[in-house]
Amino acid sequence: MSQQKSGTKRKIPMRKCSGCGEMKPKKELLRVIRTPENEVVLDLTGKKNGRGAYLCRDAQCFWKAKKSKVLERSLEVSISEELYETLGKEMTQENNDE
What we know:
alpha+beta; two-stranded antiparallel ribbon; 3 helices; 5 strands; 22% strand; globular
């Protein structure tokens, strides 16, 4: 990778929210991943290995993604109701920690 010249701006990685479809900076979104073991987990670091989908830190986007099953299509795995509930609780807990 080439070095940057001083004074140039670094490109901000953008990702699309699976719930609302808006493009936002990657750091503003939460990443949900399917691990190589086919587990679906919330990736708070954004660096875990696995296929990922991004969601706004908004519970409405999460429930919209659940209703339209967009997470299941993005991660190419079926997600149980219990797992959705767990992810929903983790998301609201993450938002309360900020």
